[in-house]
Hints:
Helices cover about 40% and strands about 20% of the residues. It is α+β, with helices and mostly antiparallel strands. Strands 2, 3, 5, 6, 9, 12, 14, 15 and 16 form a 9-stranded mixed beta sheet that branches. The chain has a 5-stranded mixed beta sheet with strand order 18-19-20-22-21, with helices on one face. α9 runs parallel beside α11 (about 620-630) and α16 packs antiparallel against α17. It starts with 8 loop residues before the first strand and ends with a helix. The mean pLDDT is about 95. InterPro entries: Aminopeptidase_N-like_N, Aminopeptidase_N-like_N_sf, PepN_Ig-like_sf, Peptidase_M1, Peptidase_M1_dom, Peptidase_M1_pepN, Peptidase_M1_pepN_C, Peptidase_M1_pepN_C_sf. Keywords: Aminopeptidase, Hydrolase, Metal-binding, Metalloprotease, Protease, Zinc. Aminopeptidase N is involved in the degradation of intracellular peptides generated by protein breakdown during normal growth as well as in response to nutrient starvation. This is Aminopeptidase N.
Amino acid sequence: xxxxxxxxxxRKDYTPPSYWVRTVxxxxxxxxxxxxxxxxxxxxxxxAGREQALxxxxxxxxxxxxxxxxxxxxxRDYALKDGVLRIPVKLDQITLExxxxxxxxxxxxxxxxxxxxxxxxTQCEAEGFRKITYFPDRPDVMAQYTVMxxxxxxxxPVLLSNGNLVEEGDLGDGRHYALWEDPFKxxxxxxxxxxxxxxxxxxxxxxxxxxxxxxxVWVEDGNLDKTQHAMDSLINSIxxxxxxxxxxxxxxxxxxxxxxxxxxxxxxxxxxxxxNTKYVLANxxxxxxxxxxxIEAVVGHEYFHNWTGNRVTCRDWFxxxxxxxLTVFRDQEFSADMVGTDSGRAVKRIDxxxxxxxxQFPEDAGPMAHPVRPDSxxxxxxxxxxxxxxxxxxxxxxxxTLLGRDGFRKGMDLYFKRHDGQAVECDDFRxxxxxxxxxxxxxxxxxxxxAGTPHVKAKTSYDPVQKTYDITLSQFCAPTPGxxxxxxxxxxxxxxxxxxxxxxxxxxxxxxxxxxxxxxxELTSAQQTFRFTDxxxxxxxxxxxxxxxxxxxxxxYSEEELAFLMAHDSDAFNRWEAGQxxxxxxxxxxxxxxxxxxxxxxxxxxxxxxxxTLNDTQLDPAFRETVLTLPAETVVAEQMDVIDxxxxxxxxxxxRQSLAQALQSDFVRAYQSSQxxxxxxxxxxSSGKRALKNLALSYIAELDDDYAxxxxxxxxxxxxxxxxxxxSLSALVNSQAPGKAxxxxxxxxxxxxxxLVIDKWFSLQAMARTADVAVVRTLMQHPAFSIKxxxxxxxxxxxxxxxxxxxxxxxxxxxxxxxxEQVIALDAINPQMGxxxxxxxxRWRKYAPALQEKMHAALKHVAxxxxxxxxxxxxxxxxxxx
Length: 882
């Protein structure tokens, strides 16, 4: 584990490598306790390089020998300090051979080469390859790899690496080998190796060119019956990319491998994607509808990286969103297209925006705020963030909003034509979009270079005599760390106007018809006014349709206007948004009342609007479920100057109970009418029905009476799928039902051999209303809990700290003491996990003084420990926040 206090690395200090690596040949003699790695690379001097020496990086390696052009180097021939190996050399062409010894079974960081359940796996992004051998481990150094794997055949019958299998055979003495060759040059972060006891499902498909490709999904024995959905998702991803972007799978073989110990969701290694089991394994017994959707999205995401990330990669890690933001956008579009209906697309869009508002907007307002293309970092692992991914996807989406779908495709085509096989920058993508469409996108660069969430304020006026309607838009972005003043962004604001009957008006800007229902206004200055003409009556504006930019819209809608939009807006996203605004206003008012000990009351206008939506059978069930889901406590918290977790929780619970009481018969009717017949299917229609049914159950359960208990227990007993089983168990666990302890015990007994299901069991208890630190500490002593497994740690520790705000932020500070202990413990095992948990307190200054004091003490306690630079960076920035 690194405990250095390395200074920040700055984007402006980028220098090209002194040497390009052209070919890499690697030989692995695999042994858990001592794996030998022999690497032979050919290098060519880079005329643009400034460093005279050859510079390589390594971590936790035992250096056995180095040979330069066949000559063994002694210790005086090179310098090795702090993981940086410098070899003075003046030749233009060199061959370098390095032998290292590594210990995979001791590698708890799960970076580089490690062992999980007796099998070998790798994770090299961002800088894990340097834990395998000394190498110029940076994304702009791309080479062709040939890899020889040797291992005991009985213990490790399956040997996989990137690219195509060239040769395999026996070595004698019970050992065997496999030789893999990747025909495409790649950076070292895309290197992958898997070896062990695995089985696979495979299918052959014909690509659009007529070429045949072999697809394989590798899992541990016993899990083969859980791979069909992942395989279907892979095939759908391949077909979608062919249709939507004209991009074809470029290898003869594409492999997915599932592993239970993994820091991330998945990794796009060229031709050999390594996945967390959470995003591969599914059948009706163990996976919920959400799991099925997530698997489809993540399989798509990693496959789409084959072009947006692998064929065209990042020049440096500051450009991370070049591949991640673009690929998240692609997987979002893929998932929406797979649903296939307008309402389904809207629900997908709403889900994506929820993630942005609940996670990215707070990040933009905290001490870890950074631009989509950061200017500096201490540890790159800390920048795999919702800003890079989700906000980055919104930036890419804005290109499509501004240029249109066809214009965006033209930009993508030019991007690949210009940069296939290269390591490039975010500016290169923007330049391709600009050139392909003849648009000046210079100002758009600020979305990459400026942190923070812009606020767009709208004011309107109507002249009944002139029949004109003016909309004045202004923008402001608050200071963020290192950026006190912001320049104006280029913001697309999609807008429609509704007449008194709820119909979209034809839109004329200064006398010219610009749209039948929606126009994209481009806000590029601090303030601009747009005049619509021939507006026959006072309209209701529908602004920021489909959430056309990642901003906070400030407009003083009346409650009557919001109810009108909720009932009539043709833009499904804004129908949902109107309901969220109504609910958020009510939650903020209730929170204030709780703080003042005033009587709590419910607004009939809100309950009437929600009742109308719930009972509107013309609306898709999934959309109705989405509208009836109240804003999360974290979303409400973002609207407050000083966060009061207990008051927010009390207010939201009161509103849910009040709605449950007011709409009781409606929820019962919705529950009964949303049953699904026949065998379980995760298709959008069936999933939507289950979502509405289980939302209704959750509201009915708020009443905590005998009927609710009986209904939840009956559903649990009859459930033939994990979606219904988890929903009913949640209803029981968050109630006073006499059978909840027995249900939890039964659930564990039924699924004890299914790790992903036991993760759900831990998570459900960690986020229960009655859970406190004592409950979580007791669960940590359960035989099934292991802090070393990232999924298990996330299911319990992270679920409590990040998913149960009222209990985590207990007034006595016990949650913070627990948090500090776990951050230190995780950091010693796995720095990435420690740093991610450390983020739970990075916005401590937003809370009331009494909580601030206890959070500050916990942060100081962690800061005093011996930390990796991953966690140290987060804690240091959090303490320095003002």
